[in-house]
Amino acid sequence: MRTLGVVAVAGLLALSAAAAPAGDPKDAAVELEAARKMLLPGDKHNVRAPLVIRKAEDLKQLEGSPELHELVQKKVDFSRNYAVVFRWAGSGGDKLTATMPAAARVTFQYTPGLTRDLRQHQRVFVLRNGVEFTAPK
Description:
Layout: H1 2-18, E1 29-31, E2 51-53, H2 66-75, E3 81-90, E4 95-102, E5 105-111, E6 119-128, E7 132-134
Parallel strand pairs: 5-7
Antiparallel strand pairs: 1-6, 2-3, 3-6, 4-5
């Protein structure tokens, strides 16, 4: 009986964490997973220089991908949040992670992959207003 209760509580916690909307007050940074496949066209991208979208007017930076434009417009409440878009080309094993050393700070870390294949990457994070971020160096 105790095992059943523990499993039920764990399942509810996992379900509530997965259903948390982007920009939930307890999360400083939330990734929009669906944006990974909605690549913006162009060849001038760098993981160290992300696009920052703080208001609805800044969405024009995403004109090359109507799907991405619509996703960010739908998921980000610009009165409480802003979006950070990282785009780059590199190894298929490249990784970009977000760590939160403090409540109002997010640090992004880039780890280059070891494979020699060239892939396009894109990651979109929603940050609460007032949360500062540091791009990879």
